[in-house]
Specification:
Structural class: alpha+beta
Helix content: 25-40%
CATH topology: 60s Ribosomal Protein L30, Chain: A
Number of domains: 1
CATH class: Alpha Beta
CATH architecture: 2-Layer Sandwich
Distance between the termini: 46 Å
CATH superfamily: BB2672
Strand content: 35-45%
Shape: globular
Number of helices: 4
Number of strands: 7
Radius of gyration: 17 Å
């Protein structure tokens, strides 16, 4: 595993829209800057090495985030990959869509809902958004949130910036009510 750097982003929100939050929102992400073994090479179809790497790195990053959260219980999670300009979008997809979620779920001790993921190709210093979804319920509107991270010197053209994040306290000052599971089921029946 060739990790050049690890970053921890810890955002605590205490007020939003002029209101003091009863429970502060915590958005915490950990990101690793990895060498991309496929950068600058012809396209391939077997990404087993990147998938395996993402699980190992995902365990490290998840432990960092959960340690930073301390006693704060996460309600949402997300993941992202920013591939350097000599890489391929599929390199990022391989790191976030296949098995890194296992490391996140195992570390958090839960989380059956789909983990939102975002991958893109960009130069060093390109911001990337991490989208949060509910850990236990994908329709948990209070856990739908996002955070933006940026690393000024990463990813270099032959690197991948891989990030995992957890949300505690829910979206700050959340005030919208989502559809009930019954209403969603009825809507889906109506569409099919």
């Amino acid at each position: 595993m060739d990790i050049r750097q690890i970053y921890l982003f810890d955002q605590e929100i205490r007020t939003e829209a002029g209101r003091t939050l009863t429970t502060p929102t915590r958005r915490v992400a950990a990101a690793a800057v990895l060498r991309n073994p496929h950068a600058g090479k012809p396209a391939i179809d077997d990404f087993t090495d990147l998938v395996d790497l993402s699980v190992a790195v995902g365990e490290i990053l998840t432990a960092r985030v959960l340690s930073a959260l301390g006693d704060a219980k996460p309600v949402g999670y997300g993941k992202a990959a920013l591939v350097g300009t000599n890489g391929d979008l599929e390199h990022g997809a391989a790191t976030i869509h296949v098995r890194i979620g296992l490391a996140m779920r195992k570390g958090a001790g839960a989380g059956p809902a789909l983990i939102p993921g975002n991958a893109k190709v960009g130069a060093a210093g390109t911001p990337i958004d991490i989208i949060f979804g509910g850990m236990h319920d994908a329709w948990d509107y209070n856990a739908m949130d996002s955070m933006t991270i940026v690393v000024p010197d990463a990813p270099r053209p032959d690197e991948i910036l891989l990030a995992v994040a957890f949300l505690a306290g829910g979206r700050p000052n959340a005030r919208i009510a989502g559809a009930s599971p019954e209403a969603v089921a009825a809507l889906m029946r109506g569409l099919t």
